[in-house]
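Priority: medium. Attachment 1 of 2:
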């Protein structure tokens, strides 16, 4: 980790809010966007899921829905900054190739950046690219964002968009026994979302929400994609590297924000990683899980952890000053980031762009 990054603006489109203030207020209030919806096929019975209002099942040739979600979140974030898009590098996290997501990968996914630019009528800076490493991709992208900003780029827009509400993902989860069902109470509840964080140099940010003081990544050799299950070694190493890079001590971590999605394998890993790393006695250790309200949102999950941490710190309702955001990808990537306040930074006005959802 070479520097520190200021979170200058955020945006989000989720099942419980069509912009970031709505999402964060609803999540803080414990509102859930999970409901039972019929999918044909699979399965024929009602499926617990967290759809965004107005959604419909993706057809194999259709990507307009995710384009719409990404465009909304990006537009919201850009609307909260004075920077011109052509001075910002877009780093966009999309579904991993191994999933065969119906909205992508018939063509080069890199074309998605050009389609977003065309849809919004803007042009991002050179170096904008697609990320395809799953949940952890946005936090893994922090090193690249730091290098770009250090080389003269004014800001980086780290985004994620995904939907598990399609027949391809649902069939794969069902066949592997990972989908939530009556006979599988520890499975994944599929969701969808788009989320963004605008990152700038911490010492140059005029008005920011919070600061990413350090980050770290690692690989987990044991995962559900192989013959064994993770014991938390990769995630605990990523957290340790993030804490060391931020220059804080383990007892200073006041709360955690995780992409844990309710699946037993992910839960086991998270708890074992916590046991490996967090050794200080705490009477209370808050643990925020966006998936409890919006389900598993795939490639957008890592960005949502940053949005939740930044907004809670900026608005003054966080359970402490320093947060650790933790993410785990299906294929083995693990990443963590330390979020803290920016001393003396004014809080920007942050109002919802919608009266209701």
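Attachment 2 of 2:
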């Amino acid at each position: 980790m070479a520097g520190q990054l200021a979170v200058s603006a955020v945006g989000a489109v989720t099942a419980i809010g069509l912009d970031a203030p709505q999402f964060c207020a609803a999540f803080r209030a414990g509102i859930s966007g999970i409901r039972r919806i019929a999918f044909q096929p699979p399965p024929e019975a009602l499926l617990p899921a967290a759809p965004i209002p107005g959604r419909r099942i993706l057809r194999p040739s259709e990507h307009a829905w995710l384009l719409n979600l990404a465009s909304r979140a990006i537009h919201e974030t850009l609307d909260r900054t004075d920077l011109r898009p052509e001075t910002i590098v877009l780093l966009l996290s999309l579904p991993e190739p191994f999933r065969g997501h119906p909205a992508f990968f018939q063509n080069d996914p890199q074309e998605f950046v050009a389609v977003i630019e065309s849809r919004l009528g803007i042009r991002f800076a050179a170096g904008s690219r697609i990320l395809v490493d799953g949940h952890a991709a946005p936090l893994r992208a922090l090193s690249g964002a730091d290098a770009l900003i250090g080389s003269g780029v004014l800001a980086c827009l780290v985004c994620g968009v995904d939907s598990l509400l399609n027949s391809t993902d649902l069939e794969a989860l069902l066949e592997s026994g990972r989908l939530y069902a009556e006979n599988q109470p520890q499975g994944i509840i599929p969701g969808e979302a788009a989320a963004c964080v605008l990152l700038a140099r911490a010492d140059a940010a005029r008005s920011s929400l919070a600061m990413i003081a350090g980050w770290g990544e690692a690989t987990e050799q044991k995962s559900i994609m192989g013959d064994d299950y993770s014991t938390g070694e990769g995630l605990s190493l990523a957290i340790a590297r993030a804490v060391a890079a931020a220059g804080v001590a383990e007892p200073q971590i006041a709360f955690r924000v995780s992409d844990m999605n309710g699946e037993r394998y992910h839960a086991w890993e998270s708890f074992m990683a916590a046991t490996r790393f967090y050794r200080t006695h705490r009477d209370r250790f808050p643990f925020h899980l966006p998936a409890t309200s919006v389900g598993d949102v795939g490639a957008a999950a890592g960005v949502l952890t940053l949005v939740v941490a930044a907004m809670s710190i900026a608005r003054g309702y966080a359970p402490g000053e320093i947060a650790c955001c933790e993410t785990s990808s299906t294929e083995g990537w693990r990443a963590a980031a330390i979020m803290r306040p920016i001393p003396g930074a004014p809080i920007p006005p942050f109002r919802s762009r919608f009266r209701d959802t």
